[in-house]
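ok trying this again, last paste got cut off
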Amino acid sequence: MPENAAFLFAAFTITALLIFGYCLFINGRIGGLRQDVEALREELAMRTADGGDAAGDATAGVRRE
C-alpha cells in the first residue's frame, strides 16, 4: 500500500485544488450578480422616485383583466 500513497496524495491534492478553484470562480460570479442586483435596485428607486410606474415599459403591452 505505501507504494500507492504518493498517487493517493496527488489525487487528493488535485481534487482539493479543483474544488478551491471552483469556489473562487463561483465567488466571482456571485460578486457580479450582487453588482447587477444593486444596479437594478438603483434603477428601480430612480423610476419610483420620478413618479413613474415601477415596472416601466415591461408591462406596456400586457392586458390586465
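PB: full thing came through this time. The radius of gyration is 25 Å.
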